[in-house]
Design brief:
The complex is a heterodimer of chains A (346) and B (319). Chain A is α/β, with parallel strands linked by helices and 346 residues long. Chain A folds into 2 domains: 182 residues, Rossmann fold (3-Layer(aba) Sandwich); 128 residues, Rossmann fold (3-Layer(aba) Sandwich), CATH 3.40.50.920. In chain A, helix 4 runs parallel beside helix 6. The radius of gyration of chain A is 20 Å and the shape is globular. In chain A, 54% of the residues are buried. Chain B has one domain: Rossmann fold, CATH 3.40.50. Helices cover 44% and strands 13% of the residues of chain B. In chain B, helix 8 links the parallel strand 7 and strand 8. Classes of the chains: A alpha/beta (346), B alpha/beta (319).
């Protein structure tokens, strides 16, 4: 066991799969330049050569079809996009070619593709470098969608994603990159489609997605001071969704808050809320609540950007509202920001 | 490379299958919009045979000739048209999404140009695995208006991929002629400036085309660069459906008459008359007709996928 960062965990999973299987290759805009896609492709070109780790023209549309075609012929592409906003340039290929392909051939042709898509905040990224758009991809049949929130999960799930014979869209939140955790050095898989209870509690279930798990844990620590015990469920995989783990948690706590790092309207949080409302209708003490981005394009100025994104403070307030208790004093608590980075472990 | 007789058989199979669609469509049992290849058959026949069938192809929604030229699988073809279970697509594809990846027809797409990028990836995989095989994307002249055509062309040239870009240039994108869609005069001057081999063809002769394709293949082997063919052709029928569209007056019938004189089946058949006995040709045709008719009868009676099984096959299932 060694202390490993989220970005290093991604690099390790990629490295060991490329070492194990010569059909695995990785490509993406700028991934061989000095930034190395936030360090996640460090050393890959040197080790595996430029035929297996390469930069591409700024042609997301054609490149998405390119990786698809290569997978049909038995290669295992990892296609890296440093912003979700850029990834959607390939939407025609995703929605019209890749989504129906396996269905056309009735499940008979392996189609191992991993789209690594980086989401999340920087500092004033504005409307075109800040989106998540998770529900664009859970909405369409034919994709597995994963959004890991810890170094341990990202390593195991990326390994599983690369080994999977289906298209996987793999969301990595930038603010998780610096988080660290003690994890196994050798490679391992984590089953796609399995959620995880990352904190046990009896008073309310928070279903948190990607980075929002970090905010939820921080909020839980604050709430603990007034003896409120939050249970946090990280679905980890958004499609196929582990409904069971969410339902059994809510049946126990009788309250549910879904926290997404995306817009809420028609989003993944809406899907989870619908499932919980239906499956836990008799247990629920209160309607399911949701938190997510404000329904505007992401503004650039810091104070507006802060108001746009949900954080631990919003979670504390939402929990207080659901539990019908007085708002506590949060003065003096410093919440996460681009300057106050979360370094983990969770 | 195929003999004249083999080329003719392939052309005749396509023409006859489509003729049967025309004959039977009114029965309303083939519930899939038809974009007919009628008149354009020589392109996939000439291209695939020029590569000795060692190729994987992607095609547009005008997919019939491409599918049959590549796979010759008229059984799957009609089972798919009739929406029956005993085919790769199980009736989920219909006319617009015909394909059989294991037989080298990867997919057909109903979104103009969207089938092009996949071919660059197929070619990349062949190069990566050192397999001596080509990828072909077939697309209409309308696809050249689309960004992903240019992106794919650029990629292919940059990576020097073993890929053929085959433009089936019938002049019309649905009902809009090239002159209303292109802000440039000469495609050759633009595409020809990419690092590739550029060819043009308008003979309507599958034999001439297969020779040119074969020559291009050898050029690639000597000095790897992608190949672009602009191939003029004429669609005899409407953009969609089984009828002619002269009554709409958007394209003059006299152009059709010109092309009809050099119909691609007629060209090959005339060559056969020089070499073969009339009866042999007739027998060859009848043989194809019999086989196709028998398959159609079977297809009509064959069972469809149970709708309870409609959720199968969304993901790869043989793990």
């Amino acid at each position: 066991m060694k202390m490993i960062s989220y970005q290093e965990a991604i690099r390790q999973a990629t490295y060991s799969e490329m070492e194990k299987d010569k059909n695995v290759f990785i490509c993406g805009i700028g991934i061989t330049s000095h930034a190395k896609a936030f360090g996640t492709t460090e050393g890959l070109e040197e080790k595996f050569g430029s035929s297996r780790c390469f930069d591409t023209p700024i042609s997301e549309d054609a490149m998405t079809g390119f990786v698809f075609g290569s997978a049909v012929k038995g290669l295992k592409p990892i296609h890296v996009h440093i912003r979700s906003d850029f990834f959607i340039l390939g939407m025609n290929q995703l929605a019209n070619i890749i989504s129906p392909f396996q269905y056309y051939v009735h499940g008979t042709i392996p189609l191992p593709i991993v789209f690594r898509v980086i989401i999340g905040r920087g500092f004033g990224q504005g409307a075109q470098h800040s989106k998540s758009l998770l529900s664009f991809f859970t909405h369409m049949p034919g994709f597995k969608v994963i959004a890991p929130s810890s170094p341990r999960d990202v390593k195991g799930l990326l390994t599983s994603a690369i080994r999977d014979n289906n298209p996987v869209i793999f969301f990595e939140h930038r603010w998780l990159y610096w988080s660290e955790q003690k994890i196994r050095e050798e490679s391992y898989e984590i089953q796609i489609g399995k959620g995880k209870i990352i904190k046990k509690g009896a008073d309310i279930t928070i279903v948190a997605i990607s980075w929002m798990n970090v905010e939820a844990i921080f909020a839980a620590k604050i709430l603990k001071k007034r003896n409120i015990n939050v249970e946090i469920v990280d679905p980890r995989t958004l499609y196929p969704l582990d409904k069971k783990i969410i339902i059994s948690s809510v049946k126990k706590t009788k309250r549910c808050l879904v926290v997404d790092c995306d817009w809420t309207f028609s989003g993944v949080s809406a899907e989870i809320a619908a499932i919980v409302s239906r499956e836990c209708f008799d247990s629920l003490e209160k309607p399911v609540q949701r938190l997510g981005f404000k329904h505007v394009p992401c503004p650039t100025a810091r104070h507006l950007e802060n108001a746009f994104y949900p954080n631990a403070e919003n979670i504390v307030r939402a929990v207080e509202e659901i539990l019908q208790i007085e708002p506590m004093n949060l003065e003096g608590i410093e919440f996460f920001s681009n300057e106050k980075r979360f370094k983990g472990p969770l | 490379m195929k003999s004249n007789l083999e080329l003719y058989k392939s052309l005749y199979l396509i023409r006859y299958c489509e003729q049967r669609i025309i004959d039977l469509y009114h029965e309303n049992e083939m519930r899939t919009p038809m974009h007919m290849s009628f008149g354009q058959e020589y392109i996939p026949v000439g291209v695939c045979s020029g590569l000795d069938m060692k190729c994987d192809i992607t095609s547009s929604y005008r997919s019939h000739a491409n599918f049959l030229a590549k796979t010759a699988d008229y059984k799957s073809f009609f089972y798919e048209m009739y929406g029956k279970e005993d085919t790769v697509g199980k009736g989920k594809c219909g006319s617009m999404h015909l394909g059989d990846p294991k037989k080298g027809h990867i997919l057909s797409s109903g979104i103009v140009a969207s089938q092009i990028p996949a071919a660059t990836g197929l070619a990349f995989a062949n190069k990566y695995k050192k397999i001596q095989n080509f990828a072909i994307c077939f697309f209409g002249d309308g696809a050249i208006d689309s960004g992903c055509f240019w992106e794919s062309l650029n990629l292919a040239c940059l990576f020097k991929l073993p890929v053929f870009f085959i433009c089936e240039d019938n002049e019309w994108a649905v009902h809009t002629p090239k002159s209303d869609r292109r802000g440039y005069k000469d495609l050759k001057k633009i595409v020809g400036n990419f690092d590739l081999y550029f060819y043009e063809e308008e003979s309507n002769d599958a034999e001439i085309l297969q020779k040119k394709v074969n020559e291009a293949k050898n050029k690639y082997k000597r000095n790897p660069k992608p190949i672009f063919f602009n191939i003029r052709c004429y669609r005899y029928l409407a953009h969609i459906g089984i009828e002619t569209d002269w009554n709409y007056n958007y394209r003059p019938k006299k152009v059709y008459n010109k092309w009809k004189k050099k119909d691609c089946l007629k060209i090959q058949k005339d060559k056969l008359f020089v070499k073969y006995d009339k009866n042999l040709i007739k027998n060859t045709e009848q043989n194809i007709e019999k086989k196709v008719d028998a398959v159609i009868l079977k297809a009509k009676k064959s069972k469809s996928l149970n709708s309870r099984e409609m959720f199968k096959g969304l993901f790869y299932e043989n793990d």
